[in-house]
Automatic annotation (TrEMBL):
Keyword Transmembrane part of the UniProt annotation: no
Name this polypeptide is given: Malate dehydrogenase
Organism, as annotated: Lobosporangium transversale
Pfam family name, one: Ldh_1_C
One GO biological process term: tricarboxylic acid cycle
Length: 343
C-alpha cells in the first residue's frame, strides 16, 4: 500500500488521471499537488468509496508535505500545446516547472519513482535525470518518460484498419520506440502478434505508411480538434493511469513479466547496452520490463524492417538535439534564466 503524488493534479490530465488512480486498491494515499485548485479536486475525489485517502496541497509551500513518503510521483504539470505549436515550443515554460519539481523530489522523496508526462518529454526526462544526478540521488531505474499514449493510439488505430483484431488484445503487443514527438515516435508495426492465437498482423505498404503517420501525429489531431483549448487530456489520463498501475503491479504486487514502452535513461539500466550501442543515445523509448525497483530490464529493440530502420535513424537525429537541450538546461544554465525556486 503506497502513496502516489500527482503534480499538476488540477489540470486537464491531472483530474481524470487522479480519478482513475483513486480506483486502485494498490494506492493507500493519493496526494494531489498543484499551484491552484488541488484542495477542491481532492475534496471531490475523497468522497469516492474506495480505500485510498486523498489529500490536496496547493502552492510551492505545500509541496514538501505532498512529496513526503511518496512511492511514486506522476508529473503532468505545465502548459499544453495550442494549434501551430510543436512540443518543443513548450520547453520555455515547462522546463523550469519540471526542474523545480524534480529538485523537490530529490529533497523530499529521493527514492520515489518519477513518471514524467509534461512535454516535451524528450527534454523534460533528461532535465529530471540531471537534477537528480546533481543532487547525488539519481537511480536510472526510477525515472520514466510516459510514452504509453503512443502505444494506446497504435492499438486503437490498428484496430480501425484491421477490425478483426480487438484493440485491448493488441494493446500490449505494439512496441513504440524512439521518443514522444512527431518523427521521434516510431511504431514497430512489422512485429505485431495477436495472442492467444499467435496470429501475426500484416499490412500493405500503404497501410503501414498511413498508420505510422497517424500514430506519429496523433497528438496534432487532438490539438487541432480542441482548437485552442489544449491537447489530449482524457486519453492521456487513461494512458498515464495504465503506466502507473503497471509499475505498481510490478513494484508493489511483485507481478512478473510486466512490460511497457517508456522513455528512459539507458546508461546504468539493466539490459540497455545493445540499444545504447545501436542508437548512440543515452535516452530512448522502447519496451522495458518493470520490477520491484522500477526498470528490471530494458528489452533489446526488435528486428526492424528496412522502413522502420530509416524511421529510427530520423528519430535518433532529432532526439539528439532534444536530449542535449534538456541536459544543458541543467548543466549549463543560461545567464538570466529563472533560478530554481526554493521549495
Ligand atoms: N506525455 C504525453 O504523452 C502527453 C503529455 N502532455 C503534456 O502534459 C502537460 C499537461 O497538460 P494538461 O493537463 O492538458 O495541461 P493543463 O494546463 O490543463 O494542466 C496543467 C496543470 O499544471 C499545473 N501547474 C502549472 N505549473 C505548476 C507547477 N509549478 N507545479 C504544479 N502544477 C503546476 C497547472 O496549474 C494546471 O493545473 C502538458 O505539458 C502537455 O503537453 C499532454 C498529453 C500527452
Ligand atoms: O500533442 C500534444 O501536445 C500532447 C501529446 O503529447 C500527445 O497528445 O501525444
Amino acid at each position: 500500500m503506497v502513496k502516489v503524488v500527482v503534480c499538476g493534479a488540477a489540470g486537464g490530465i491531472g483530474q481524470p488521471l487522479s480519478l482513475l488512480l483513486k480506483q486502485s486498491d494498490l494506492i493507500s494515499h493519493l496526494a494531489l499537488y498543484d499551484i491552484v485548485n488541488a484542495i477542491g479536486v481532492a475534496a471531490d475525489l475523497s468522497h469516492i468509496n474506495t480505500a485510498s485517502k486523498v489529500t490536496g496541497h496547493v502552492g510551492a509551500g505545500a509541496l514538501a508535505e505532498a512529496l513526503q513518503g511518496a512511492h511514486t510521483v506522476v508529473i503532468p504539470a505545465g502548459v499544453p500545446r495550442r494549434p501551430g505549436m510543436t512540443r518543443d515550443d513548450l520547453f520555455k515554460v515547462n522546463a523550469s516547472i519540471v526542474r523545480d519539481l524534480a529538485q523537490a523530489c530529490a529533497e523530499h522523496c529521493p527514492k520515489a519513482f518519477i513518471l514524467v508526462i509534461s512535454n516535451p518529454v524528450n527534454s523534460t526526462v533528461p532535465i529530471v535525470c540531471e537534477v537528480l544526478k546533481k543532487a547525488n540521488v539519481f537511480d536510472p531505474r526510477r525515472v520514466f518518460g510516459v510514452t504509453t499514449l503512443d502505444v494506446v493510439r497504435s492499438s486503437r488505430f490498428v484496430h480501425e484498419v484491421k477490425p478483426q483484431f480487438e484493440p485491448h488484445e493488441i494493446a500490449n503487443r505494439i512496441t513504440v520506440v524512439g521518443g514522444h514527438s512527431g518523427a521521434t515516435i516510431v511504431p514497430i508495426l512489422s512485429k505485431i502478434n495477436q495472442q492467444p492465437h499467435n496470429q501475426s498482423i500484416s499490412f500493405t505498404p500503404e497501410e503501414i505508411k498511413t498508420l505510422t503517420h497517424r500514430i506519429q501525429f496523433g497528438g496534432d489531431e487532438v490539438v487541432k480538434a480542441k482548437d485552442g483549448a489544449g491537447s489530449a487530456t482524457l486519453s492521456m489520463a487513461y494512458a498515464g493511469a495504465r503506466f502507473t498501475l503497471s509499475l505498481l503491479e510490478a513494484s508493489v504486487r511483485g507481478k512478473r513479466g510486466v512490460v511497457e514502452s517508456t522513455f528512459v535513461h539507458l546508461p546504468g539500466n539493466p539490459g540497455s547496452e545493445w540499444n545504447q550501442r545501436f542508437t548512440g543515445l543515452d535516452y530512448f523509448a522502447q519496451d522495458v520490463e518493470l520490477g520491484p525497483d522500477g526498470v528490471a530490464k530494458v528489452l533489446a529493440l526488435p528486428e526492424l524492417s528496412t522502413e522502420e530502420q530509416a524511421l529510427v535513424k530520423i528519430a535518433i537525429n532529432e532526439l539528439k538535439g532534444n536530449v542535449t537541450k534538456g541536459v544543458k538546461f541543467i548543466t549549463e544554465p543560461q545567464p538570466g534564466a529563472p533560478p530554481a525556486a526554493k521549495l
